[in-house]
Structure formats: structure tokens, C-alpha cells
Amino acid sequence: MRRRSIGGVWGNGPQRDVGRCCWFGRRVPVSLAAVYRSIRSGSGRRRATLPVRPRRDGTDPGEAPVVGGLLSELSKKLAERWLTLLVLPGALYLAVAAAGHTLGQSAALDVGRLTHAISDAARALVATAVGGQVVLLAAILAGAAAAGLAAQSLGSVVERVTLAAGWGAWPWLFGELAERYVARRQRCWDAARAEYEALRLLERAPRPADRPRPRERHRAARRYERISVERPERPTWSGDRIHATAVRLDRDAHINLLILWPHLWLVLPEEIRGEISRSRAALARAAVLGGWALLYLPLAWWWWPAAPLAATMVVVSARRLRAASDTYATLLEASVRLHLADLADKLRIEEQPMGPLLGGAVMRRLSSPVPAAEPAS
């Protein structure tokens, strides 16, 4: 019988005879019937393949493309984040600084002078040579990144001041001013809250003519909520809004949010953790915008249009900080109220409704006992 070739394997037809094929310099027996069946099963679309020889270090050769693709996607995301958060805002800052340096206070809005200066700079020898363009682009990117890092650093300071979590430990001058401001806010809140409670009592009057209009009660509620949702304990509205979450949970369920939150975070569903993380990121971005405002403010010394630009950034940053802190505090409180029972189930606490009994049982499990003092010898 004539010998024929199937996929590089020689034999006597689709019998159980064994041929030989070359596999990385080795001769390995291959069944012709197995090769024939593999070709027929692919319906002519795929060719019979041989197993890939493993590496000497024991790793799978197929893992390399997967890891390479993961690193490529990660580098793309990092480059996009670096470009969006640092380079583009920093390049705008450098452009404003260059415009201010060129125009000055006397010709702050002279567009013709700015256009003429840009044309002269474009015709310069450094800008026309390839090497000069590369150096100029590298300098702009480095300066923009440095400005972005400075804005983020100032944004962290703005965030700490806005949330004012540890305002009691501020330096003596700032701490004294913050304490007086907190006392003033408390007096205003007490007066506005008392007015609101008085209107609520009048709503229960037996005669309809003695009851106040709902509009008056809503205005009174708006006045004290504009100061703080709960009684002020911090010098800022955003700080009091987040602190109000801890106050409410302590009052309603005897929960210490500072101790509870790290444990509750581990049992929260992924979508809820994503929502909380996004709200926290929005709060950080609003603070970074305030950091950019602080960077733009010194430019007003050379170019006065930088002052209204910085003022606009301050207003937008303040409004965003207020909205982001409100959303973040709302999500914190809602997640605790909805998933405290899940944490209690993980701690093997019997099921019971949300309240002081459940909160107290959970806190007893999570709180570390105070070490006993050693007797004096």
C-alpha cells in the first residue's frame, strides 16, 4: 500500500499503526487515527495541533500573553489617569502663568500682544529645531506634572481643613479661632432649632387658625440645616455632615462608627463598596480643585485676571465639597443600617432588628477589652 502523509505524519492509512513526528528535536509516537479524527472534527477549519512543550522553569507558555495583556491594560489606565489628573490641568496652569508673565498688569487683556509673543516664540531657533522641540515638550510635561502634584498636595490640606476631623489638635492660634467659631455655630444652631421645635408644637394646636403654615416650618428647618444637620461639633459644614452620621448611629443603635466601619467594609457587597469609593473619590477631587485655586491665587500678583479665576475655583470647590460630603455621609449611614445584620450574622449573633440591642451586641464583639492594671508591688 502506498504510504501517504497526513499533517506531516507518515503511516499506512488510518490504522492503529504508529508513525513518527518531530517535536522540538525529539521523535514522539503519534496515532494516525487520532490525527485523522482531529482533522475531521474541525470540519476543515482547524489543523491538528500538538501539545506545547512546557518550559524548563515549569511555567505555562500560554500565560505570557495573558500577563502581557494585563500589564499593557494597566499601563494604559495609568497613562490615562496621569494625563487627565496631572498633565492637562498642569498644562493649563502653565499657559495661564505664561500669559500672565507676558502681559502683566498693564496689558492684562491685550490679545494682540499675546498673539505677537506666541508668534515670536514659535519662530525662535529653539522651537524650530527638532532637538529644541523635544526638550521644550519634555520641559512642559515635567512642569505640568509638577504643578499637578503640587495641586494634589494642597488638595489634601484643603480636605483635612474642610473635614476638620482633628481640629482640636490644630496649632494654638488656629485651634483657638476654630473653637470660637464652633461655639458661635452652636449658638446659632440652638436658636434655629428652638424656633423649628416651637413651630412643630404649634402644629398640634387644636384650632387650625393657631397652626403655622407648612412653609414657615420648612423655612425654619432649612435655617438650622444650613448650619448643620446635627448640633455642630466641627468648624465646617462638611465636617459636621460626616460627624452627624456617627452621632445618629450612636444615638439610634449605640454604634461607634470608628470601630465598626473597618469590619463592616469587609462584608459589604461589591457594588455598595464601589458606590462609597466613588463618592469618596469625588470628595477628593473637589478638594484638589481647591488646591488648584490656591495655586492660581499667587498669579494675581502679576496678572489680575487670575484672581477671579481662583475665586471661581474656590466657589465651585466649596459647592462640590458640600455635595460630595453629603453623599458620602448618606452612603455611610445607609450601608451601616442595611448591612449591620450581615456583620452580626458573621459574628454569630442571633438575628434581631436594628437598634440598641443589636448595636450593643456587635460592639461588644468588636471592642477590645481594656487590659487590667497590674497591682503595684
Q: What this model shows, in words?
A:
With 377 residues, this protein is mainly alpha-helical. Helix content is 67%, strand content 5%. It has helices spanning 32-41, 63-103, 111-122, 125-128, 130-163, 172-202, 214-227, 237-253, 257-265, 270-296, 306-346, 356-366, and strands at 4-6, 9-11, 18-23, 26-31. The strands form two sheets. The protein has a two-stranded antiparallel ribbon with strand order 1-2. The protein has a two-stranded antiparallel sheet with strand order 3-4. A hairpin with a 2-residue loop joins β1 and β2. The protein starts with a strand and ends in an 11-residue tail after the last helix. The model is unreliable at 1-30 and 43-50 (pLDDT under 50).
Mean pLDDT: 80
Strand order of the largest sheet: 1-2
Determine the N-to-C terminus distance. 105 Å
Number of discrete helical segments: 12
What oligomeric state best describes the polypeptide chains here? single chain
Portion in helices: 55-70%
CA radius of gyration? 35 Å
Percent strand: under 5%
What does the main sheet amount to? 2 strands, antiparallel
Task: Specify the overall morphology.
Answer: extended
- The H-and-E topology, N to C, reads as EEEEHHHHHHHHHHHH
Uncertain ranges = 1-30, 43-50
Structural class: mainly alpha
How many strand segments? 4
